[in-house]
Amino acid sequence: MTRRASEVAAARAVAGAALLVGAVTTLAGAASGRLALVVPACLFLGVGLVAALVARELSARSRPPEQVAPPPALQALARRLTRTRMRLLGGEGWALEGRLDGERVTVEAWEAKGLTLRLAAHVPVALTGKVVNGFMRTPALRDGAPPPAPLREEPAAGALVGLLAAGGEVDVGLTGLEVTVPDRPGSPPDLERLARALITVAAAVRTDTPPPPDPRPRLLAARTRPSTSDAPALSVRRSETVCPYCRDALDEAQDEVVACAACGTLHHAACFEEHRRCTVRGCERRRAERVSGS
After folding, report:
1. Do 149 and 156 contact (CB within 8 A), yes or no?
2. Which of 123, 211, 121, 202 shows the shortest CA–CA distance to 160?
3. Residues 6+ positions from 251 with CB-CB distance below 8 Å
4. Mean pLDDT for back-to-back runs of 10 residues, the chain (294 residues)
5. 48 contacts 68 by C-beta, under 8 angstroms
6. Distance, CA of 79 to CA of 93 (rounded, Å)
7. What Cα–Cα distance (Å) separates residue 70 from each residue in 81, 108, 133, 220?
């Protein structure tokens, strides 16, 4: 018998004994007319009820958690992938990893968020951004500009339109492409078709080599240790006064400017607060030090 089973059995035994004594005391008091037995009878009955509730709670915790089955769309894609690995995410979602036609594909399925399909690929910096359905269902970047030329030519253009029809937007990032689609009951999405569409789009924009770690103008920083204190001090020199997040000029005389506490990159304070971390790829420190402004 396990420890939890022993605890459940003990709680049930205490509950049974207390309820039995309480019932017998109540009957004895009623038969003899002695009111003095009412108080101990109530105490025994109360202890019995509490012990019964404890036993019920322990019994419920001892049951194994119910396993939620993966969504049908995820199971269908798993049968088409090679080197497949599926795992449960915190009891509320599923993750699937595998390869389709040699490409690494990952899917996360959440009941409230839908299905997020990702494809690993190196993408040039100039092509990064979210492509959305714009006016007249024409693909456009988030700011309304047309997508890059490689995404306006077939077969990538047709594949992109299909992805946008299913998910509304496609995130083209430095390390891959991503689309999130709803998982409606009774009409699961065709994840294999969407994955092949991502592969087609990736073929138009990917590069053979990884992008540079930080192609944007940035602040060059160095760490020095002063002799009067054990705490490191940040010394910086500026290469260009441009905020890497919004790409606007940094005017330390008028703007509120902060520097990343790790690499020293300058940002507008509002930009750093909005992004909640450093924008330098590979850094992403969440703390900044004020450089200028009130």
Report:
1. no
2. 202
3. 241
4. 73 82 80 76 82 80 64 91 87 87 90 85 73 70 77 88 87 84 86 93 78 44 41 44 80 82 83 83 77 68
5. no
6. 19
7. 15, 10, 30, 48
